[in-house]
Write a structure and sequence with these properties.
alpha+beta; Rossmann fold; 8-stranded mixed sheet; 26% helix; 31% strand; globular
């Protein structure tokens, strides 16, 4: 018969074994939970064909969990063809996106992509086999329901939604194994003009966005939490690691009909093949056929000397009226202003500015310092996760203050988050003791890689006063929507610097504008008896070398248009005959796009939000445009996906903008693994649920900006879930450690247990009730 001691030992062993069994069951339960993503339904039939293991990828490709443990679905590939027709100052573009499903699973491809911030997106076509399915405009929620129903029924469908005026999402449902699906999007935009140079930009990628964390703000009911970017998940697509073989190639075909004899035609960022066709026309292609989508494309052209036009007028007739687009270039000869000025230079030194961008920004600042005169005062504000200023308040220009400023600039290093709000508040501060009468001008150098644009626009509108805000976009893929609208709300201008070679020319152009009086008091008088709804209204002041651009809906299209204004105290005017207007297909859509922009900006200045939203929706539906509240949807009539197959939702990765430094955004490779196991960054963000308490921004006065906090005070940089079941591994390790501790504790306590008098009595005489 076994001894009492052996029976007790057996009881302890049984308890430890039971604990081990419970731990194993818990581990498998966690594993099952981790391996079943929320957006993937369980398939009745398991098909492992076409799935991959991360170790087999070899090129850093992005993969998504499937319903088969240990196997993953490769992200669909995408190629883009761009066809642009330029006629005078109007450009019509067709963007063709080809989704390629390289797996043997049925997938839904989701792709976040950019378009020009001034684009009027008005057409969607979905190509299935040899057939094109025409899309239609619907209210956003309605379009989403139509798409989701088609997706559930196994029908092919396409959906285009606007996240920002320069950022859109294309979703394509039920792309079959090995299948290609083609989506065509069309839009209209105007050509940009400045100092006799015509420019057309096509953005290639959505760069990672910094997302500030929620905050608590005061209200009439106390304190309420506010999330400045409630749609953060929609504007932060995955980013392919630089070692990835993913290129998202883009090809280009551009037809340029300038309407005047062409001078220089150039592309500063990609090599092009140029074929002139007569004096006024040219065909443009990428020299190598296609380029990776890692930096924006820009085409610049000028007129031959002496042939620069000073006016352009286009007209489109529709049943509801006539639509006109007029562009007039005022004379550029005017004296420089001699009034003293106060310059506040703001420079972004966050992680996204690391590499080429920070060098361009610092070079731009050095140039700006060289333009200052002894009567001017200035200050420099640098920001990343924190905000630091060179001086406590602006100081007059002198050899001493300039020397300190140059040391300050040279010591700047790019790291940390992009907490832009505090920097803007600091730049727009008004000092109660400032009665100098200086014209206050803020020059803001940044890539604009933020997601809280609306919050910042509202801040500018509320705090601007008599200040003027000039934005300078830095780098290969700046957020031009933020840069351009911030300048417009700030009554300044937007300048773009794409490479270090452009710093001198672009900064010289900007400070040439600042140094000359603006064209003010601009008015447009329409023909007598003609009712007009014109945009923008009112027309803002314009700077040296900028054209007046107005779009309008008219009740008639006969008679003269008179444009007038004041330059340096002298009257200026120009008259155009509506009968001379050229045919302008799409002008109505451009007018509607401008009206939507005007409505959005009215909301920043306190207009009723419900009224604004209703008017935006109505305008977009009436003119067939994608907007914040409307989307384009196209649905095939025939189901193609078998009911036994599930759909895997996959997001097409975007590339890291050229010149950006991966480790400054997502951590070093050593921290993240190598090869195919490298996580793909979704954007500079995290989704914290707790909001921070309200606090007045703290500013630092220092001569060494390296003292600014290097780590983001907002949401940290998380990386998306990839092949590693981190939750399972953590719990497995924890349970095994607890098991080991319990076993060890039993061995340590056993000698004392058998020697304790009470326990000895019980072991000898048995347990009694």
């Amino acid at each position: 018969m076994p001894s009492v001691q052996s029976r007790a030992a057996r009881l302890i062993a049984i308890a430890v074994a039971a604990f081990n069994i419970i731990a194993v069951v818990a581990v498998f339960a966690v594993q099952a939970k981790a391996e079943t993503p929320a957006d993937i339904s369980t398939s009745a039939a398991t098909n492992t064909s076409g799935l991959v293991r991360p170790a087999d990828m070899g090129g850093g490709s992005i993969v998504f969990r499937s319903d088969t443990h240990g196997l993953y679905v490769p992200a669909p590939l995408i190629g883009t063809n761009v066809d642009i027709q330029v006629s005078g100052t109007i450009a019509r573009a067709t963007v063709t996106q080809k989704f390629q499903n390289t797996s043997d699973k049925w997938v839904e491809g989701i792709y976040v992509f950019p378009l020009p911030e001034t684009a009027a997106v008005d057409r969607l076509r979905l190509k299935v086999g040899d057939r094109f399915i025409e899309g239609r405009i619907e209210e956003r929620q309605t379009a989403k329901r139509i798409y989701e129903q088609a997706k559930a029924e196994g029908r092919k469908a396409g959906l285009v939604e606007q996240e920002r005026p320069n950022m859109f999402t294309t979703s394509v449902a039920n792309v079959g194994p090995g299948e290609n699906i083609v989506v065509q999007i069309e839009y209209q935009q105007t050509v940009q003009q400045s100092n006799g140079r015509y420019s057309l930009r096509f953005p290639m990628l959505v760069g990672p966005r910094y997302i500030p964390k929620p905050a608590v703000v005061a209200s009439g009911d106390g304190y309420v939490p506010v999330d400045p970017v409630p749609d953060a998940e929609r504007i932060t697509p995955p980013v392919a690691h630089p070692s990835s073989e993913i290129t998202n190639p883009v090809s280009l075909k551009l037809r340029l009909d300038a309407g005047f004899p062409l001078g220089d035609v150039s592309s500063p960022y990609q090599p092009i093949a140029l074929k002139r066709d007569g004096k006024e026309s040219a065909d443009i292609r990428f020299k190598d056929g296609s380029v990776p989508a890692n930096r924006d494309f820009e085409l610049n052209w000028t007129a031959k000397k002496g042939d620069t036009p000073n006016a352009a007028l286009f007209k489109e007739h529709r049943p509801d009226g006539d639509y006109v687009l007029l562009t007039v270039t005022p004379p550029t000869k005017s004296p420089e202003t001699d009034e003293p000025r106060e310059f506040i230079f703001v420079i972004d030194i966050s992680g996204s500015m690391a590499g080429e961008s920070i060098r361009e920004a610092k070079a731009g600042l050095h140039y700006a310092l060289g333009t200052l005169k002894p009567r001017d005062s200035f200050n420099i504000i640098a920001f990343n996760s924190g905000t630091a200023s060179l001086f406590g308040a602006p100081k007059l220009t002198s050899d001493e203050t300039l020397a300190g400023a140059k040391r300050f600039i040279d010591g700047l290093q790019a790291n940390g988050g992009t907490e832009m709000k505090a920097a803007l508040e600091r730049a727009l501060e008004h000092y109660e003791d400032d009665d100098s009468g200086r014209l206050r001008q803020v020059v803001f150098l940044t890539d604009g890689a933020v997601g809280n644009e609306d919050q910042l626009f509202g801040l500018i509108a509320r705090n601007l006063g008599k200040t003027r805000l000039f934005t300078i976009g830095i780098g290969s893929a700046p957020n031009s929507y933020f840069m351009r609208r911030a300048a417009r709300v700030g009554r300044g201008t937007y300048t773009y610097i794409g490479t270090s070679k452009e710093v001198l020319d672009r900064m010289s152009e900007l400070f040439g504008k600042i140094a000359h009086p603006a064209l003010t008091d601009i008015k447009v008088e329409w023909p007598q008896g003609v009712e007009a709804e014109a945009m923008p209204d009112p027309i803002p002041d314009l700077y040296f070398g900028e054209p007046v651009e107005v779009s309008a809906r008219l009740s008639g299209a006969d008679g003269d248009i008179r444009i007038s204004g004041t330059i340096a105290g002298k009257a200026w005017e120009k008259t155009l005959d509506l009968s001379d207007a050229a045919n302008g297909r799409g002008v109505a859509g451009l007018w509607a796009r401008n009206k939507i922009s005007a409505l959005e900006e009215s909301g920043l200045r306190g207009a009723n939000a419900e009224v604004v939203n209703r008017e935006i929706t109505k305008t977009a539906l009436d003119y067939g445009l994608v907007s914040k509240y409307t989307s384009l949807v196209a649905v095939d009539v025939t189901p193609t996906r078998p009911g036994s197959e599930n759909v895997v939702s996959t997001r097409v990765p975007t590339l890291l903008p050229a010149g950006w430094v991966w480790s400054k955004l997502f951590g070093s490779d050593a921290e993240q693994g190598t090869g195919a196991d490298k996580p793909q960054g979704p954007g500079i963000r995290t989704r914290e649920t707790k909001a921070t308490s309200p606090a007045k921004p703290q500013y630092t006065r220092l001569a060494d900006a390296a003292k600014i906090a290097p780590a983001p005070t907002g949401r940290q940089i998380p990386l998306p879930q990839t092949a590693t079941p981190a939750e399972q591994m953590f719990l497995t390790g924890l349970l095994l450690v607890l098991t080991g501790l319990l076993t060890g504790l039993g061995w340590l306590l056993w000698p004392r247990l058998v020697r304790h008098p009470l326990h000895t009595h019980r072991l000898t005489h048995g347990w009694r009730a």
